[in-house]
Amino acid sequence: MPALPIEIVYSIVDELSNDKNSLLTVLLVCHDLNRQALRSLYEDLSFDIRTSHRSLVSLRKLSRAIDKNPGLQHTKGFSICFPDSHLPAYRQAYRLLDDVIPALANLRCLSMSCPLGDVFTPATLRLVMSTAQLTHLYLDCVLYSDDFIDFLADHPSLRCLALYAFMDGGGSDALPAGTLPNLRSLAVPTDPSVLVRFGDKPSLSDLSLIASEYPYQTIDARPIADGFATIRTLCTVGIDFPSVLALIPLLPNLEYLTASGYPPSNNHDFTGLASSKLKYVQLDFLSDPLFFSSVFFAAVETLLIVDVLTKIDGKIDGKMKKCRRVYRNSSNNVVLADIVTGNWQQWWEPIEKDLQRQIRL
What we know:
The protein contains 12 helices and 15 strands. It is of the alpha/beta class. This is F-box domain-containing protein.
């Protein structure tokens, strides 16, 4: 059988890139696809052991003869969700990581989710090859210690860092000067001791604040504004809306906002937003899109789009948000919209194309 034209090979692989089972099936019967398909199959590896035993089986298969696996040279992203720590699968997965992570020479993006009460130590992170040019690191909970600080210093290529919870391991109160020089996106708890460690980074443009108190947290806006004055996009999770409203005018470059947790009420004062440069607002709680869009549009002259989320379908490798959307130029109409966040994308990136279209109108 003659070789397939390369254009057809690319077309087949692109069409099946989101269906790895079908791609594997085709690969078994058509060797012409081998090289190109390997890249698609291995470029982004995800193992959700928390919800699927098959993921543990797949991870175990991957660890076998791992030094002879040509596909791993293409792996840029690796994501894993661990099950509860009392389950045998938890310990098995950790042991398998000892073989898998050091084999990923070209790793760029690493995400590790642990069960409540567990923590990732610097020893786990040291499995990453020292030559790996990490750009994205997402951890559910990390032991903040001098060893962890050294790990960050050893990876100046990091652009996106998400540390959803901290356990104090005696690390320095502030990161050494020059650490994380290329950091663009940061997600951290609202604990003041955490914020002071990561503030004052001129390169930072995207900040996510995760409440460290349940169910909703009131925050002091001024220290956050002082430490993160350069940010262009802001995500708040579990923070009461009056605190968010107080923070917005203090961030002179802010253009994108998403807020979840405590819903706004009719009594909140929006007049302080008049000086802001907001272009997009996303509300992640049940509310009337027409009412709140009219309030925001009246308060913020630059605002173009307001989204009110209705549903989130989350997966380890991305998520889809369904929302009711209102545009400034048709503020009496609500349209349904899907926001699809791909692998390793930031929450605001899928919005940019539509926002630029509104700017040109």
